[in-house]
Design a protein that fits this description.
Layout lengths: L1 E2 L5 E4 L6 E5 L6 E6 L5 E6 L5 E4 L13 E8 L6 E7 L4 E6 L12 E5 L3 E6 L5 E6 L3 E6 L4 E2 L2 H4 E3 L4 E6 L5 E6 L3 E6 L4 E6 L3
Antiparallel strand pairs: 1-2, 2-3, 4-5, 5-6, 7-8, 8-9, 9-10, 11-12, 12-13, 13-14, 13-15, 16-17, 17-18, 18-19
Length: 203
């Protein structure tokens, strides 16, 4: 699946490359999309600020989170039993919420929430634990434990750069974390968050 700058989301068959489904004529551009670990749910968000989970069997929405918050991204826990959601309230700081189950209809309000000084741009869980890696517009890389988002050892698990951090990915074996920044710097870290090397995509 891939978000599109043309106000749509396209889902392809991995083997054939054929289009399975399209979400078209959406309200604004779509920046982000993700599957649940079991493949039952599909989420996306974008310019509209709404977070919309869909049933992957029927492609019908389960609910939409909108209102006063602008939802930026989300991350399913590896066991598929939780969902971390990053948001931004207009004129206020960024927020991070955790839904304890994927029974979306029960969650008109988040189960656990917290706020921060900068807006989270992307996040991902370790494939082997409840550790959540987040990156922010303020250049912060932080590892937290879900569901209460306790920050881990600051010496290893928190760093800050001058540029906005835009993306983060965790390797399938859980050993490597990669972050991408707005200045074109890609940073490679171990599972403790310690930097091993950096790459400049402009060179």
């Amino acid at each position: 699946a891939a978000p599109s700058m043309g106000q749509k989301v396209i889902i392809w068959d991995r083997e054939t490359g054929n289009t399975i489904h399209q979400f078209a004529d959406l309200k604004g551009e779509v920046y982000w999309a993700r599957w649940s670990p079991d493949g039952q749910y599909f989420l996306f968000s974008g310019e509209s600020g709404n977070l919309i989970p869909y049933n992957a069997s029927t492609w019908k929405p389960l609910f939409g989170r909108g209102g006063g918050s602008h939802y930026l991204c989300a991350a399913f826990s590896p066991d598929g039993n939780g969902l971390a959601v990053a948001s931004e309230i207009e004129g206020q700081e960024g927020g991070l919420s955790f839904l304890k189950s994927l029974d979306f209809k029960k969650h008109s309000n988040p189960s656990i929430s917290m706020s921060g000084s900068t807006v989270i741009r992307d996040m991902v869980f370790s494939p082997r634990s409840s550790v959540l890696a987040t990156v922010s517009s303020g250049g912060e890389f932080i590892l937290r434990t879900a569901p209460r988002f306790r920050e881990l050892n600051q010496d290893y698990f928190f760093t800050k750069v001058m540029a906005s951090l835009e993306s983060v990915a965790w390797s399938p074996n859980g050993k490597i974390i990669v972050t991408g920044a707005s200045d074109g710097i890609i940073t490679v870290r171990n599972s403790k968050g310690e930097i091993s090397h950096k790459l400049d995509v402009h060179k």
